[in-house]
Write a structure and sequence with these properties.
The complex is a heterodimer.
Chain A (H helix, E strand, L loop, with lengths): L2 E8 L2 H13 L4 E5 L7 H5 L6 H27 L12 H31 L20 E6 L5 H10 L4 E7 L4
Antiparallel strand pairs in A: 1-3, 1-4, 2-3
Helix pairs in contact in A: 3-4
Chain B lengths: L5 H23 L5 H21 L1 H4 L5 H6 L4 H7 L14 H40 L9 H8 L2 H15 L9 H5 L2 H6 L5 H31 L4 H28 L12 H26 L8 H32 L2 H13 L1 H19 L8 H27 L8 H22 L12 H5 L4
Helix pairs in contact in B: 1-18, 2-6, 6-7, 6-8, 6-12, 6-13, 6-17, 6-18, 7-18, 8-11, 11-12, 12-13, 13-14, 13-17, 14-16, 14-17, 15-16, 16-17
The chains are: A alpha+beta, B mainly alpha.
């Protein structure tokens, strides 16, 4: 299908936030927003579903904690107990204070890395992927809002976006939906 | 304008009266002579005899927690043998009875001090938080300035009471003030350049003056800003806040050495000051959140949004973890190095105060982290209140464990002196903070960042 889109460029994140709210209030559909840095509250303003990545992160943290406990128990208690600094390694709980730093580190390690990997998968990102970014300036200091123009009067929409403070507006006709 | 609700005022006055009666009762009923102690010990012996028949395994054998965790029988006894700090000799006592008498006499002092310091450190911690907001020129928090100032109103009465307790407690708290003991103790002689009474008194006066002067002038400038047509009072506040923070960081460290660490003058830990600070700071932020929720519930602060509560919740969450980090850092290094003069500090706490010692970790770490982890929950007032209750109870226990094992040892009990002191200072705190809040409008007018703070969102 031929999708007609309008790219409106803003130069300030507060301006963008305001424009996003106005555009949604005027019942236009925002298909995507490109920003050089995360703008707090933008996901809520655009109307995206709340992210569940925090929950996955919590679960990954628990997995990391479990891996650390099992690993330390196997290495230091079952397989090869050693007397380090006069501390007999006969049970897990006798030696637990020494294991806590490792338990903490692996919890953070698992939570952090697996969350990032999950994020890449959910966002369909992988190495050598070609950037979908429509305008390289959005990686520097510009903000781009992409609005569906299919069922709207382009003239009117352009005027509207101009009034929201867009510094640049361009009409994009796509043969295919990336 | 806020006025302390009638029934809350009545409640606080009842607490003060009952608490005062209990504190006096505690002081009057301490044993005066060794004969009294012998009688008490004989009674306890009798009780133990009965208890023995029911729960025989409690007393029998040497299986205590520390030995078991070490996997080495007789370990704790051995370690404690070298600990003069916590033993009879460390307090200048010659016999066991005299030592018990000393500990029983120290109990009402300790009980009063724990509660007095707990509420004083809340006010002091809020003052530090307040100073940080000015020094960092924070944009989110000016809407909370009047609330913080209301809480720090307690600093003056609170710190004066704490001052008198530590100055008059003498050898009940501080064995190094016993001259006979110092005369026979090489380590205490070496430390006497710092640990001597005149210098101790001077330091305490410096803390008292420094903290209260900053509170007085910052409050004055903050109120002056409301009527000013320029930002001169704010600038003055910025400057004195920076100097206060430097002053505080030094005096907080020496304060924690003076008033807590020197209770066991042979023992030392280099991160002890930070540890006390963490406890102070997290309790203080928790109380700011509680007072904010209280005022918000009364509808007096419409300019404070759930975003501000969210931020306070984040601070509670973060500093609970910070406290645990310091607690564990101190514990693990001492546990691992296992140096006799260091481990005694934890052996007595784990053996005689096991439930409190580990319960405190659950209250101060596990509960706050689970309750406040979810971002949305930090905006729900009753969720924050639940976490706040856990944190405050936990940090009261923390202060209890800083003081009690060093002063009363295994003769501790959570009885009338402790509960009464807690009631008295809670009542006084509610009363003073309530009056402090009701003095001026709760909206800091004319603050340079007030607009940003009111529109704060993320």
């Amino acid at each position: 299908m031929a999708a007609t889109k309008i790219h409106a460029i803003y130069t300030d994140d507060d301006l963008l936030m305001q424009a996003v709210k106005q555009t949604r209030a005027a019942n236009y559909h925002i298909s995507e927003v490109f920003t050089p840095f995360p703008v707090h509250g933008l996901d809520h303003a655009v109307g995206l579903a709340p992210t569940r990545i925090a929950i996955t992160s919590f679960i990954y943290g628990l997995v990391g904690l479990a891996v650390a406990v099992l690993m330390m128990n196997y290495m230091m208690i079952q397989d090869w107990p050693q007397n380090i600094g006069g501390k007999p390694s006969f049970t897990f709980y006798q030696n637990m204070p020494a294991f806590i730093p490792i338990m903490f580190e692996l919890t953070v390690f698992f939570a952090g890395h697996l969350m990032v990997i999950t994020f890449y998968m959910r966002s369909k990102l992988w190495p050598f992927k070609k950037a979908e970014n429509p305008d390289p300036r959005t990686t520097d200091d510009h903000f781009l809002m992409e609005v569906d123009a299919d069922n709207h009067d382009v003239e009117k929409l352009t005027k509207f976006l101009y009034d929201t403070g867009a510094s640049e507006i361009s009409l994009i006709e796509n043969e295919h939906d990336h | 304008m806020y006025t302390l609700p009638r029934n809350l005022k009545l409640f606080s006055i009842v607490l003060i009266v009952l608490g005062l009666a209990g504190i006096i009762f505690g002081f009057l009923t301490t044993p005066k002579t060794i004969d009294d102690v012998k009688k008490i010990m004989a009674e306890q012996e009798g009780l133990h005899g009965e208890g023995h028949a029911v729960a025989g395994h409690e007393e029998g054998g040497t299986a205590n927690f520390v030995d078991e965790a070490r996997g080495q029988e007789g370990y704790s006894e051995n370690a404690m043998k070298h600990a003069t700090d916590l033993k009879a000799e460390g307090h200048g006592a010659t016999s066991h009875e005299e030592h018990v008498l000393h500990q029983l006499q120290a109990r009402p002092w300790s009980a009063t001090f724990v509660a007095a310091f707990f509420f004083m450190m809340i006010a002091l911690g809020v003052l530090v938080f307040y100073a940080i907001q000015f020094a960092s020129q924070a944009g989110w928090s000016p809407v909370l300035y009047r609330i913080m100032e209301g809480i720090t109103a307690y600093l003056l009465p609170g710190s004066i009471i704490v001052f008198f307790i530590v100055v008059f407690a003498g050898t009940h708290f501080f064995p190094w003030q016993n001259e006979e003991l110092v005369a026979g103790d090489k380590i205490l002689q070496d430390k006497s350049g710092y640990l001597n009474f005149p210098f101790f008194l001077i330091r305490a006066v410096i803390y008292l003056l420094g903290w209260n002067l900053y509170r007085y002038f910052s409050r004055k400038n903050s109120l002056a800003q409301a009527d000013a047509d320029n930002y001169a009072p704010y600038r003055r506040n910025f400057k004195i806040s920076v100097f206060f923070l430097i002053f505080f960081m030094i005096t907080e460290a020496t304060m924690s050495w003076d008033w807590f660490m020197s209770m066991t003058p042979h023992w030392y830990s280099t991160l002890f000051a930070w540890y006390v600070f963490a406890s102070m700071f997290v309790s203080a932020i928790t109380v700011i959140a509680l007072v904010t929720i209280h005022l918000k519930g009364l509808g007096l602060i419409p300019f404070v949004s759930d975003k501000h509560l969210h931020d306070l919740g984040k601070y509670m969450f973060a500093f609970s973890i910070f406290w645990t980090y310091l607690w564990f850092s101190q514990f693990m290094l001492i546990w691992y190095a296992n140096i006799p003069e260091e481990v005694t500090y934890f052996i007595i706490r784990i053996q005689e105060y096991k439930v409190l010692f580990f319960g405190m970790l659950i209250l101060n770490f596990v509960f706050p982290i689970l309750v406040l982890m979810n971002s949305d929950y930090k905006r729900i007032p009753w969720f924050v209140v639940i976490a706040a209750v856990f944190i405050l109870v936990g940090h009261y226990i923390d202060v209890f464990l800083l003081v009690m094992p060093s002063t009363v040892g295994h003769n501790w009990y959570f009885g009338i002196p402790e509960i009464a002191a807690l009631m008295f200072f809670l009542g006084l705190f509610i009363f003073v903070v309530g009056t402090g809040l009701s003095k001026v409008s709760l909206r800091p007018k004319n603050d340079p960042f007030i607009k940003e703070s009111e529109n704060y969102h993320f």
